[in-house]
Specification:
Distance between the termini: 43 Å
Radius of gyration: 22 Å
Number of helices: 13
Order of helices and strands: HHEHEHEEHEEEEHHHHHEHEHEEH
Oligomer: single chain
Structural class: alpha/beta
Amino acid sequence: MPSRSDILNSILNEKGTLDFVKLDTQRKNYLQQLSTYTSRNVITYYSGWMSKRNAEDVSINDKDINAFMDTVYKLDKSKGLDLILHTPGGDIAATEQIINYLHSIFNNDIRAIIPQMAMSAGSLISVSCKEIIMGKQSCLGPFDPQMGGVACQSVIKEFEDAKEDIKNNPQSLGLWQVIVSKYHPTFLLACKQAVLLTNELANKVLKRSVANKAVRGKIKKLFNDNSISKLHSRHYSKEKVKKAGLNVIDLESDPKLQDLVLSLHHSYIITLEHSLITKIVENQIGSTYIRALPIPQEVQQKNITKQ
């Protein structure tokens, strides 16, 4: 298996700069090889959030359904789907639509492959699948709902603590008034609604992928209970996810699959780190859906001058 450095060195031209045409060709070749090896459809969903944290379009959002519609088109749906995910998560409503759409198209025959990270809503998509393929370097994360970067469950607990504290110690009212006054109107209600929606969706996806009710409860507690995870950015290893009861397959158990998945992963990371691309959704038959940052104005002006 070529390392990230090996792949990077292989696509440098004589001037020592990246040959993006060669990189694109190499990435698509790995994708085709992976599909041929597994005899399954492959769709990759890669976000550039690790190198473009301030970009608006790196999270899961409603635009993504168009990307999946584009990459599902013309696939042989009877072959099932291997969905390769690299994402920080995103909007819960958009995630629900993506899960419903893909499972309806592929009749629930979906495996999630996690080369590195599928966090938050990405973990929810993974949990909905019949199998999750992870390596020693892979991780999932909690999908408890957040509102403006704040854990909704923590907000609700804090408010309940405030009521109890004021009841037992009226002198604390002033302190709690200062804290609660920071909430914007309907914020508490919005947090409660987000918690209800996430619970509903978690129950739905786990019922699809996990038969045992007790196991479903254990998995849900790990991923959707803020008092357990403590941090929304918590990284859950392959072993922790497996111990919770999810059907996790070791990527290392199939060296050929591991080589193809990680070579493909390195190719995507290089593409995202060295271009303006913020997101790539792609399949093995050549359909590619790309979103990117605008070309900087000084580059546009330079191109105009050259013309």
